[in-house]
Every structure is written in structure tokens, then in C-alpha cells.
Amino acid sequence: DVIGYAHRGAHSAIVFDLADPMGESTCVACGECVQACPTGALAPANDAYLKPVDRQVASVCPYCGVGCQLTYHVHGNAIVRVEGRDGPANHERLCVKGRFGFDYVAHPQRLTKPLIRREGVPKAADFTMNPADPLSVFREATWEEAMALAAGTFARIRDTRGPKALAGFGSAKGSNEEAYLFQKLVRTGFGSNNVDHCTRLCHASSVAALMEGVGSAAVSNPVMDVTQADVVLLIGANPVVNHPVAATWIKNAVKAGTRLVLADPRRSELARHATHYLQFKPDTDVALLNAMMHTIVAEGLVAQEFVAGRTRDYDELARNVAAFSPEAMAPVCGIPAETIRAVARMFATSRAAMILWGMGISQHVHGTDNARCLIALTMLTGQVGRPGTGLHPLRGQNNVQGASDAGLIPMVFPDYQRVDNAAAHAKFAALWGAELDAKPGLTVVEIMNAVHAGEIRGMYVMGENPAMSDPDVHHARAALAQLDMLVVQDIFLTETAYLADVVLPASAFPEKTGTFTNTDRTVQLGRQALQPPGEARQDLAIIVDMGRRLGLPWTYAHPRDVFAEMRQAMPSIAGITWERLEREHAVTYPCEREGDPGERVVFTERFPTADGRARLVPTQLIRAAEQPDPEYPYVLITGRQLEHWHTGSMTRRTEVLAAIEPGPVGSFHPADLAALGVAPGGAVTVASRRGSVTLFARADAGTPRGALFIPFCYYEAAANMLTNPALDPFGKIPEFKYCAVKVTAGGTPAARFGYDNANVAP
Ligand code: SF4
Questions:
Q1: 10: left (phi over 0), alpha (psi -120 to 50) or beta
Q2: What is the residue-wise DSSP string for 47-65?
Q3: Model pTM greater than 0.90?
Q4: Distance from C-alpha of 88 to C-alpha of 484, rounded to nearest angstrom
Q5: What is the 3-state secondary structure (H, E, C) of 589-616?
Q6: CA-CA distance, 202 to 361, in Å (whole number)?
Q7: pLDDT at 480
Q8: What's the rounded Cα separation, in Å, for the pair 136 and 441?
């Protein structure tokens, strides 16, 4: 909608919005116009189209879970430009990150040699980072020396203190093969189930509710099904920012007649496209959703046949929601009773209604209850098992679905087979030829607590950055600083690597081949386009080397060898061959036998639970763990920005993305800013009971009064200095979306942290 005509006759001109300067318009810099322009009037900057290209490599975007397919245009060992490819999730579309966020690969701060911490350089939780000068903290080492030190110390800790004194964090950015091998290394090389990854921080509660309710943690329908839905309920998600290409399909669907219900305490861009925008009060999801279910039960809108044949525990659920009338819940959630009723009726009576949700649902101490409500709402109305219906938790990282499927989770082996299930245990012990721990391991936050308690002494972190992404990050950094051996495998000297004993230089996404599973359950092939720089090695080779040094008889020479073993371990992908992925680029699971087409829509006949039925679970109102009070009167909401991914280690080193969003900001309602006496762009200091940061204020009418939003990608004003580590008891996910803070005008913003080469003054 951004580019159009203005003026009349001979004066007509092509403009952005109402002839606004491009940078001030609603342009999101996706570059679609450049890719579409048939005349060359619009072309990439820096003459990228004129540069020579030796080859094109078909691959996948390394950022979000949408999983857009793309083509790298490569010259020598450099990416010249990126174009969208016709993949099932994107049909040639890309967002600003996918199209322009590739030059981090060639950033001068790439790690090119193994590093060992210098003797006498202390590990301090309150370090000041300078990734341009790693040699002030570390010395360069050979691979042999670094690996011998890392693996030798792990083996010593394992053999003297026991297997549970070690833990590993794998990565949702890595491939399926890397995730599979990493969890196998922890389970068979370290000897415990202390392995987890950032799924714990994004959708662990959704996974807990889905496993309990429908016996499967993956989505029932792909995002693209929004184009076949009559009604889409989008709750606790901001896909324009977090899943941008998915958001374009939602906009297309609305234009074609789909009715969108957007429910979120922060008003986002999609509110403009919504039939109903429900700006409910933060922390009141259960009140809103139970009131919708109350309406459906009270008004006789339940899909009786479906509920009788395919669900259980209906009576208990119906009894529970009887206490949640819209009139009773309206003052709790802030949505008028009549609106709640109207939306509930629309959802229940439509031909096909679909629910998509994000971390606004999951990142609460009642995240599992929030997701239970969404499952129950779907089941009550029978809106599942057909195109345009179903449940879709929008997965964040590009491979968080695949990493979870591959078993990078402390309580399950690959394909969610519980470690304490005797049959699963026996199966994996036989497949791997190893004795296995039958007790679930510790989760991300529990591992940090166990380090503080002195129970965990060594950690292997591959491609994750808990020193930025964990809640109450000072606590996490203090834990990492206490370890006898912290090994970090990454492409940059991240905040976590700063606390390491050994740093292993790894491969960036375009430097390796592997499979990646997007939010739609589609397994796609990422292909190597470049060679890693210097002595950096491919991640899979590093994991194999570490495994061998820990005594494992591993002979994997290529990702396809690992994938072949995964097919034996995981019935869901048993029918997918490497050759088919090379040929077709993408196959959706379940695909249990070779030749199966793969299933876009699941739960058509039964649910993968013991009795084939979905379980309806009643929920009660539970408040956030930390409520605002006179001392800390604001609610802090954290999340992502369009331009920056996760903790920013890649995107902040990307020229285009860092130019658009260069430094830390907090978004406030304009009236709150006025009350604070701060002009947009002015400095504010935000403090919680755990820490404080100073950043620049941004006016945003979509942020509710009394709340503020801070993205967690900025090292110099790390939002997770403030967040509360309180956990959802089922998913063990921290409450990133709600904690109490105070805000004061002024303060000295940390010097703008430049990744160009050094710290840059603001
Ligand atoms: Fe990449 Fe996600 Fe953007 Fe697609 S929507 S280009 S997968 S970041």
C-alpha cells in the first residue's frame, strides 16, 4: 500500500504514502518493489545489479520461522544480492531481513581462529564488551589445543563430578542435523539430559499445552491457510515485525474477504486490517478466552458432534467457563461484553476459523493456561482438521521447530518421545548403542540456577546467547562466569562468548548445508554458498570432533549421514529422503513412508493422543508474578523489532538493518511520555528490581498507557537486565511479557554500541 500515484494530469507522480520522504513513510524496506520492478527504475542500492555473479545458490532465509526460500547471488566468496524464490511459504516474497540482512557473514568481527581465555583475565558478570578487540581477553590457539582443552575438561568434570555436572545449549538457528547431533552428544557423551535451547524462551508453554491437549506440538495447518479461512483469530503476536512475510499473506486474505480478529495489548500494524481489534489489558488472556468459550457454551454454539466424537472432559470445561461470563470478565480484560460475544459467535459459526498465536500468549507464568484456552476454543467449535482451520503457534527462530523435533529438549528424545518412557528409552539406547539417563534434564533457567548452586560446572553452548536472552540476565551472566569450563561455538564474540574459557569459530548460515524445519512443519534444504573465513569450521564438524574426543565412535562425514540416522529415530520424517529434498527443496511432515506427499493439514480424523481424542483443560485466572505497585508502576513488555533478530549478533552487524534501527529505544504511549516530561528521542531510565537501563524514548500510540515496550536485541540497554525469571510451572518459560518497572526522565544513555569496529559515541 505504500507506493502509489499522487497529483493529477501532467503533475502525477509516483510517491510513498502522501508524498512523504521514503524514510518517513510506512515503507518497511522489504525490497519487494525492487524485485518486482520490470523496468529497472527501482534497483538495489550500491549498484548490486551491475556486479558480476558467478553462481546462484538456492537456499532458505536464516532468520524467522516463516522459512522463506531465497537465492544467493554469489561472486567469488561473497554474496552480492539475495532474491526471493518460489517456496511454499513465501512464493518469492522476502522481508527486509531476508533480502538485505546477509552482509554480517563478511563482517570484520567474524571469529576466524579458536580462542582460549588468557590466564588471569577474570570473568565478570558486569563486563563491558568490545568485540573488536577479542585479544584483550583471549589468545589465539590451534584447533588441536582448543579442542583438547575443551573436551579434556568436560571429560574430567564428567568423570569426577558425574554426568549431571555438565549441560549443553544447542541452537534453533542451527540445522536439524546439528541439533540432532548436539543432543546426542549431551545424552551419550556427557551422559545426562541436561540439554535445552531457546524454545524454552519462546513457545515452551505452547508445546506443553499442545502435547497435553492434542498429543503433538507442531502446527495443525500452515500459515498460508489464512487465505482459506473465513475468520482468523490472531492473538499475542505481531507478525508484521516477527513473521513479516506471513503478515503479507494475512493482509492478502483480508483483502479477499477473510475477517481478522486481532487481540493484543499492543496495537500493531495489522489492527488496521482487522474486523475487530481487541486491545485487552496485559495479563488477562485467560479472562478474555474463557469469556468467549462461555458465550459459545451458553448460546448453544458448541460443535456437538465434534466434541462428542473427538474430545474428552467437555463437562468439566463447560462447568468451568460458566463462571466466566463476558459481563464478569469485561472489567478484568477491558473488552466490552458485547464485543466478546460478537467475536465468539463469529468464530464459532464461521465455515473455517483458524487461530495463530505468538509469544504474547506463551511468555507468561500462565502461558500454558493461555494456550490451553486456545486449544479448547478450537475444539469446542470443531475448527480443526480442515483447510483454513486449526492451531498455529507462530514459531520464532528459523529452526526452532526442527531443533525441538530433533530432541534439543531435556525431557524428550527426538520426535517428542519422553526420556522416562521405557519403550522410548530402550529404542534410543539400542539405536545409539549407549546407556541413557531416564530422568528428564534441567531447562534453560534451571541450568543457570544449578550453576549458581555449584551443581553444574561445565557447559557447551552452540550458537545461543543466554547472556543476552535469559531473563534477569545479570543472574545468567553471573552463572556463566562461575563455570569451570564454558565452551562457546559461534560466529561472533557474543556476550556469552565473552565469558567463555574456549571459543570455537563456527560457520554462518550460508557457509553450510543442512535441513531446516519452518513453522509450517516443512523441511527445507539450506545449501552452502560460501566457504567459512580463516580457520572457522562447519558446526557439524566441530560437534563430531567434540563427540569423538569424548569417546563416541562417530563417523558422520556429511549432513546427509546424520539425516539418514534421524529418519530411523523419527517416524515423522522417516519417509523424507535427502535426494527428494535436493530435488523438491521442501517436504512437509508427517511423511512416514517414502513417496508420501506429506501432510499440510493434520488431525483430520484423530489426534495423536493415547485415545485419539483431544483433551479439554479448564483454566483459572492467575496473575503475573510481579504486579505494578507505587514504586514500580509501569508494565514492561519485551520483544523484537522488524530489523533485528533475537539478540542482534547478526542483524546489528548488517549495514542496512543497523542503519534503519541503530540503537536502543523504548516505546511509550505519547501521553505517558508527556506525563514523564520526555520528548520523543529523549533519554529515559527504566529500572526493575533486578537492574536498570537507559535508552531513547519513542512515541507509539499502540503501546497501552502504563506500559512500555523494549526490544531485547541491544547489548548497551539489555532489556533482560530488567525481566523477571519467574517460570510457568508446566512449560518452564519465563515471564518476558510482564514485569513491573519504574521510569524516570533522563539518565546517560550508554554510548551507542557500534559493531562497525568499536564503541561509537551517540
Ligand atoms: Fe526471512 Fe522471516 Fe523475513 Fe521470510 S519473513 S524473509 S523467513 S525473516
A1: alpha
A2: GGGGS---EEEEEE-SSBT
A3: yes
A4: 46
A5: CCCCCCCCCCCCCCCCCCCCCCCCCEEC
A6: 10
A7: 97
A8: 36
Enter the C-alpha cell of residue 702: 499502540
Residue 537 backbone dihedrals phi, psi, to 5 degrees: -120, 160
Cis? peptide before 590, omega within 30° of 0: yes
pLDDT less than 70: residues of the chain? 751-762
**Considering only CA atoms, which of 575, 628, 617 is closest in space to residue 599?**
575
Instruction: Report the C-alpha gap between 468 and 656 in whole angstroms.
Output: 23
Q: What is the DSSP letter of 648?
A: S
Task: Answer yes or no: is the C-beta of 60 below 6 A from any ligand 1 atom.
Answer: no
Amino acid at 84: G
What pLDDT score does 751 carry?
A: 65
Residue 680: Cβ-neighbour burial (10 angstroms; 0-12, 13-18, 19+): middle
DSSP state string for 460-479: EEES--HHHHSSSHHHHHHH
Predicted local distance difference test score (pLDDT) of residue 43: 84
In ligand 1, which atom is closest to the CA atom of 62? 1
Centroid of ligand 1 to alpha carbon of 114 (angstroms): 31
| Region class of 57: left (phi > 0), else alpha (psi between -120 and 50), else beta | beta
> How many Å lie between the centroid of ligand 1 and the Cα of residue 398?
8
What pLDDT was estimated at residue 432?
97
115: which strand partners?
140, 503
Angle in degrees, CA 571, 577, 579, rounded to 5 = 170
Classify residue 427 by burial, with Cβ atoms within 10 Å: 0-12, 13-18, 19+.
middle
Decide: 94 in ligand 1 pocket, CB within 6 A.
yes
**Cα–Cα distance, 640 to 652 (Å, whole number):** 13
Average pLDDT, the chain: 94
pLDDT for 761: 33
Nearest atom in ligand 1 to the alpha carbon of residue 246 is 5
Coil vs helix vs strand at 726: strand
- With beta carbons less than 8 A apart as the criterion, state whether 363 and 733 touch: yes
Residues in Cβ contact with 615 at an 8 Å cutoff, skipping those fewer than 6 apart = 212, 213, 214, 311, 312, 313, 609
What's the pLDDT score for residue 756? 56
The alpha carbon dihedral of 153, 154, 157, 160 has a sign of negative
DSSP annotation of 189 reads I
d(CA 484, CA 482): 7
Which residue lies with its CA nearest to atom 4 of ligand 1?
68
